[in-house]
């Protein structure tokens, strides 16, 4: 049974399609974040967008939204992937398909990254890549075809919300590769319960005090379910009210938008 909203202290927010789209902050988002701060709670942002680092998001929130945040508040699929790679592949050569920013972040953290099909590669990692080229896809397929090394990806999202609708996300990129090499990746971002566990560890709050808020059922809401916490879906992104009838990922709370969630909390 879900815990009443008024008892929530830790809020794990998706970003795109949930509190904002592009450089536009949704109505009520800033007020909701202020309300959470006023009640002694904490907000973290659990985005599957790996094109930006935590530092990049701090700068974007300040520039575009006029919000002051810290790097610790951003639990991105890129960060979850970085933690996993440092734990399991810190001494190894890793093939990465991703943005220049993502590749740079991995290298800055001491990982040996290549973007070419070289000898001695220990695993393949695919991220959401807004700089994707056909050549990158060919190199990934070359490595995965010639070896049986592990195949990882940052997130299974098929499409990413933008101001005019949606564009292909990491899951769609992986589907092209998987259909070509007949291998499926292991996804490291949402809906992995490790995302919720990290939020709990950083904040110090309990599962009963936690709420995952997102717009996508098979990543955001599934992440909360997998992590054993309550969930809230807003219908400003991918999920629609009609999807609630037969989803395997039912949210505990449903609202048209963030503003309605704010009113319910107040």
Radius of gyration: 18 Å
Show unreliable segments.
Answer: none
Mean pLDDT across the residues is 96
Total strand count, please?
14
Spell the H/E element sequence: EEEHEHHEHEEHEEEHEHEHEEH
Helical stretch tally: 9
Distance between the termini: 21 Å
Query: How helix-rich are the residues, as a percent range?
Result: 25-40%
Strand line-up of the largest beta sheet: 4-1-12-13-14
- 3D shape: globular
Structural class: alpha/beta
Describe it.
With 266 residues, this protein is α/β, with parallel strands linked by helices. Helix content is 37%, strand content 20%. The strands form 4 sheets. It has a 5-stranded parallel sheet, with helices on both faces. Strands 6-5-7-8-11 form a 5-stranded parallel sheet, with helices on both faces. α1 runs parallel beside α9, α5 crosses α6 and α7 crosses α8. The radius of gyration is 18 Å and the shape is globular. The two termini are 21 Å apart.
Question: How is this structure best summarized?
Answer:
The protein is built from nine helices and 14 strands. The chain is of the alpha/beta class and 266 residues long. The radius of gyration is 18 Å and the shape is globular.
């Amino acid at each position: 049974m879900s815990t009443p909203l008024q008892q929530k202290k830790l809020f794990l927010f998706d970003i795109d399609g949930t509190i904002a789209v592009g450089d536009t902050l949704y109505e009520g988002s800033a007020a909701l974040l202020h309300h959470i701060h006023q009640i002694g709670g904490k907000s973290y942002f659990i985005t599957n967008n790996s094109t930006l680092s935590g530092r990049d998001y701090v700068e974007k929130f300040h520039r575009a939204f006029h919000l002051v945040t810290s790097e610790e508040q951003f639990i991105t699929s890129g960060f979850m992937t970085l933690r996993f790679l440092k734990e399991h592949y810190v001494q190894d050569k890793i093939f990465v398909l991703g943005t220049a920013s993502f590749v740079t972040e991995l290298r800055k953290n001491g990982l040996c990254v290549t973007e070419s099909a070289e000898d001695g590669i220990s695993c393949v990692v695919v991220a959401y890549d807004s700089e994707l080229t056909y050549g990158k896809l060919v190199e990934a397929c070359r490595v995965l075809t010639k070896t049986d090394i592990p195949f990882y990806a940052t997130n299974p999202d098929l499409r990413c919300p933008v101001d005019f609708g949606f564009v292909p996300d990491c899951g769609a990129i992986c589907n092209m590769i998987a259909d070509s090499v007949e291998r499926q990746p292991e996804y490291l971002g949402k809906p992995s319960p490790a995302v919720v566990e990290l939020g709990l560890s950083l904040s110090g709050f309990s599962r009963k005090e936690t709420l995952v808020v997102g717009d996508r059922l098979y990543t955001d809401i599934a992440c909360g379910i997998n992590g054993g916490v309550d969930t809230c879906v807003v219908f400003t992104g991918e999920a629609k009210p009609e999807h609630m009838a037969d989803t395997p990922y039912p949210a505990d709370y449903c609202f048209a938008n963030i503003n309605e969630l704010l009113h319910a909390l107040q």
